[in-house]
């Protein structure tokens, strides 16, 4: 990534918008990702799940209940079912108080977002924007999530092919808590960097080592609060460190001071400002 200056001797972490600018707009909607791009995010994070008819959609939870006016598991619904739901009106913001008819007013704020549409948004951006795609509960699907993901990434030019120079490939990375999912992705597209997400620091990873083939460590911020030495260990082992979910100013400062490579945050604008980038 390009070096960014943030003061006392270290480059600032790059800023990744978690589920889009999800503090200001409903998570995983086109509106949230447009806002993240406007806010200057270096990269966009999204979670993906497979629908019953095999489409990858950007939804965090197993069920749609929390973030839409529908009910049920994403895996049991078809894309056409999801397209009838409102994924935005659950979230009120100071400038847009809750309005029951808002879904008719702004489909970008309320429609279900497919990964395909998000890839289009990234491709059409007027500057380079990276994408970090997280596979959710991939073990249920015996490889289908990864297969579909690589097919889509390939279609959008993110995989290596003869005659497709690496420098021209937009930067996409894949993330997962599942080493098995990352392994499948590496087999299909070894050129795409992978991020191993960790909720806890297990003895196996304490020294900075990661599952084979993984280049980036993805610890939760709680790991860094308890084990700040982890960043240096991971760096010494040759890995970059991308930390989630970094929203509080003291956590942003901790990541900056430890030399973290990327912070994944719901508030890209405020974090960039704190880092002296915006
Ligand atoms: O970016 C990683 C982070 O998103 C993992 O946690 O639950 O927000 O998907 P979660
Ligand atoms: Ca995620």
Automatic annotation (TrEMBL):
Gene3D superfamilies for the chain: Phosphatidylinositol (PI) phosphodiesterase (3.20.20.190)
Domain of life: Bacteria
Every GP-PDE domain range: 13-275
Region listing for Disordered, in residue ranges: 1-25
Alphabetical list of Pfam families matching this protein: GDPD (PF03009)
Regions crossing the membrane: none
SUPFAM superfamilies, sorted: PLC-like phosphodiesterases
PANTHER family given in the database record: GLYCEROPHOSPHODIESTER PHOSPHODIESTERASE 1-RELATED, GLYCEROPHOSPHORYL DIESTER PHOSPHODIESTERASE
Name of the featured protein: Glycerophosphodiester phosphodiesterase
Lineage of the species this protein comes from: Bacteria, Bacillati, Actinomycetota, Actinomycetes, Kitasatosporales
């Amino acid at each position: 990534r390009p070096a960014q200056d943030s003061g006392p001797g270290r480059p600032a972490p790059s800023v990744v918008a978690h589920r889009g600018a999800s503090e200001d707009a409903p998570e995983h909607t086109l509106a949230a990702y447009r806002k993240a791009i406007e806010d200057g995010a270096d990269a966009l994070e999204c979670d993906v799940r497979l629908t019953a008819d095999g489409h990858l959609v950007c939804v965090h939870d197993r069920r749609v209940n929390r973030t839409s006016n529908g009910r049920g598991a994403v895996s049991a619904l078809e894309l056409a079912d999801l397209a009838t739901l409102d994924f935005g009106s659950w979230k009120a913001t100071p400038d847009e108080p809750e309005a029951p008819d808002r879904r008719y007013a702004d489909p970008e704020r309320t429609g279900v977002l497919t990964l395909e549409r998000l890839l289009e948004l990234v491709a059409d951006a007027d500057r380079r924007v990276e994408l970090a795609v997280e596979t959710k509960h991939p073990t249920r699907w015996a490889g289908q999530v990864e297969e579909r993901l690589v097919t889509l990434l390939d279609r959008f030019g993110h995989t290596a092919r003869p005659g497709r120079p690496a420098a021209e490939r937009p930067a996409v990375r894949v993330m997962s808590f599942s080493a098995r999912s990352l392994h499948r992705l590496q087999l299909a597209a070894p050129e795409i960097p992978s991020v191993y997400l960790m909720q806890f620091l297990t003895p196996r990873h304490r020294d900075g080592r990661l599952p084979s083939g993984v280049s980036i460590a993805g610890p939760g911020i709680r790991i860094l609060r308890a084990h700040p030495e982890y960043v240096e260990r991971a760096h010494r082992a040759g890995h970059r460190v991308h930390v989630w979910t970094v929203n509080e100013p003291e956590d942003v400062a901790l990541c900056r001071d430890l030399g973290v490579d990327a912070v994944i945050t719901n508030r890209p604008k405020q974090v960039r400002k704190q880092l002296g980038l915006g």
